[in-house]
UniProtKB/TrEMBL annotation:
Pfam families per UniProt: HATPase_c (PF02518), HisKA (PF00512), Response_reg (PF00072)
Protein's UniProt name: histidine kinase
Keyword NADP (UniProt): no
Modified residues (4-aspartylphosphate): D453
Residues of the Histidine kinase domain: 162-381
Top class in the EC scheme: transferase
Organism: Pseudomyxococcus hansupus
GO molecular function annotation: phosphorelay sensor kinase activity
Length: 521
């Protein structure tokens, strides 16, 4: 069972916590400390909730009470307000959602937990009024899932300014280089020295576009929702992605030292591991005092701690933590930051995710010396071999020998650019509507393979594949999908079962040709 203590002063919180834990029923109670100024869970599913009245305006206390009441599952919780107000005011507070009003710090917490537990236990099977019990594990899992999502969204908000800076820098010279290329190409003839400069301009634009693509790919990995999919994960890739996302914030606050040794992949989930690394890096930055970046240090190291384990270490030379703080850093909603800054969820969620992947977190810290967080994860030593797809770029062939490729994408510019890339290799036909593609096929048009976008108005790529399986099942086996990133776990599972694969945008000629050749096989 949970006991959620909302905005209690430290001394009152200690007394309430002690009273709960000293009772028989509260001995195994999980106690959460919540700052009302921070982010409350979307739904407090079960247990005792204790709210503090700071003695301010009645309207403020009413608003706080109503906010907590709106976040709880009423049938499975008991809301206690610690207040010293007069009876007529407590009646108003009861109308706002309080189940009970007590003078601080309150007593008989065990009796309240027993009464609440009795309400949660289902009645006998012969009782007509009995209702099926809501499984406690399901409620807890749902609550933890909400915390993970809330923490990830808070991290994305923190990343936003730095990511915008990282994207705008290469975007500025990509745009200016394209403008310069357009100006040069408007001339009738170009001297040889300008042709050389044009090649440099194109190379710079490609490099900038690649940087932007990498940032978007890292964000997509961080935020995607396929959290239950576990497999071999390259931790060096995860760390690189997190450092790219936070590069601007790190540069403004500290000097970074990064040592990534070759290690075996770990068995886990890439997006969750990315969330863990980002959280640890943000915590390290927030622990640094206000001094010049040259004086602050953040160190990241990845190594094999044994033949069966991989170790990631994030260290800082910040304020450090006293022993009493270290004992509570993994408690949900516990935070040493000022009220209103952060949710206090980050380290608690890191611990939950690491343990779910069979790992552990170790912490060493001392006031004035900084902190070191060490994550130890099991390596995936069996059932994994690195077998990268060999790039295939077909040589140009004569028009009579070219295989026919049907491209379906609602963006005309995508169709035009793909046609330019591969028209010397394939005979390519482009349409902007999946229904138009089905009409062509029903009229007898023949193609060797199909490449279709996922997100399109009218008919999506997934719906197109379903219809194609009825109309031309042999061609459905040579159909691949492409996406710009808006992709659910269910859609990814569909692709794995019913198509030849997924090509993620943006792509260059080599990767496009490799994917298309795979469809022909």
């Amino acid at each position: 069972m949970f006991a959620t203590l909302v905005a209690l002063p430290p001394e009152v919180s200690e007394e309430v916590e002690q009273g709960i834990l000293e009772s028989d029923v509260g001995r195994n109670c999980q106690i959460l400390h919540v700052s009302l100024a921070g982010s409350l869970p979307e739904a407090i599913a079960e247990g005792l909730i204790v709210l503090w009245d700071d003695g301010g305006a009645l309207s403020d206390v009413l608003a706080r009470c109503q906010r907590v009441h709106a976040c709880r599952v009423v049938a499975r919780t008991h809301l206690v307000l610690l207040t010293g107000r007069a009876p007529e005011q407590t009646e108003v507070l009861a109308d706002a959602g309080a189940d009970e009003c007590l003078p601080a710090p309150g007593t008989h917490w065990g009796a309240r937990l027993v009464a609440l537990r009795r309400r949660l236990v289902p009645k006998s099977a012969g009782d007509e009024a009995s209702a099926p019990a809501v499984p406690e594990l399901t409620d807890r899992e749902r609550l933890e899932s909400q915390w993970v999502l809330a923490d990830r969204m808070a991290s994305i908000g923190t990343l936003a300014a730095g990511v915008a800076h990282e994207i705008n820098n290469p975007l500025s010279y990509v745009s200016s280089n394209l403008s310069y290329m357009r100006e040069l190409l408007s001339q009738q003839e170009l001297p040889s020295e300008q042709l050389m400069e044009l090649r440099e301009v194109v190379a710079e634009a490609q490099e900038g576009a690649g940087r932007i693509s990498g940032i978007v790919r890292d964000l997509r990995t961080f935020s995607r929702a396929d959290e239950e999919l576990h497999g071999p994960v390259d931790m060096a890739h995860v760390v690189d992605g997190a450092l790219r996302l936070l590069r601007n914030q790190i540069a403004l606050r500290a000097r970074l030292t990064c040592t990534l040794e070759p290690v075996l992949p770990v068995h886990g989930n890439e997006s969750r591991l990315s969330q863990i690394v980002v959280n640890l890096l943000l915590n390290a930055l927030q622990a640094l005092p206000d001094r010049t970046p040259e004086e602050n240090r953040v160190r990241v190291s990845l190594r094999a701690s044994s033949s069966r384990h991989v170790e990631l270490e994030v260290s800082d030379n910040g304020h450090g933590m006293a022993p009493d703080v270290q004992r509570r850093i993994f408690d949900p909603f516990f935070s040493t930051r000022p009220v209103g800054e952060g949710t206090g969820l980050g380290l608690s969620i890191c611990l939950t995710l690491v343990q779910a992947m069979g790992g552990r977190i170790e912490v060493s810290s001392a006031p004035g010396w900084g902190s070191t967080f060490r994550i130890v994860l099991p390596a995936q030593t069996a059932g994994w071999t690195e077998a990268p797809l060999v790039p295939v770029v077909p040589e140009p062939v004569s028009p009579m020998m070219r295989r026919r490729l049907l491209l379906i994408d609602d963006e005309p510019s995508v169709g035009n650019s793909v046609s330019r890339l591969v028209r010397d290799v394939y005979e390519i036909h482009v349409v902007q509507d999946a229904r138009e593609a089905l009409r062509l096929l029903s009229m007898g048009e023949r193609f060797d393979a199909i490449l279709c976008d996922v997100m399109m108005p009218g008919m999506s790529g997934l719906d197109f594949v379903v219809e194609l399986e009825r109309l031309a099942p042999e061609l459905a086996l040579r159909t691949g999908l492409m996406t710009g990133g808006a992709f659910t776990a269910q859609a990814r599972e569909f692709v794995g079962r019913r198509t030849r694969g997924l090509l993620e945008k943006p792509f260059e000629r080599e990767r496009l040709c490799t994917f298309v050749e795979h469809l022909f096989q």
